[in-house]
Amino acid sequence: MLMMINECGHPLCRNCVENLFARNSGPCPQCGKILWKKGFWEQIFDDPMVEKENHIRKKLRKIYNLKRADFPTLRDFNNYLERVETIVMNLTYNIDVEETEAELDEDQIWIHQMLEEEQKRKKLAIESVGDEELSGKATSANKSKAIIDELRESDLPAEVILDRQRKRQIEAELAEKEEAFRRKKSKMEAQQKRLDTASFAAIRVSGAPFVYRAPELPINGPPLPKPEDLHRMGYLQHVVQISESRYAGGFTPETCCMRALFDSRIDLFSF
Question: Which residues form a coiled coil (predicted)?
Answer without folding.
Answer: 167-194
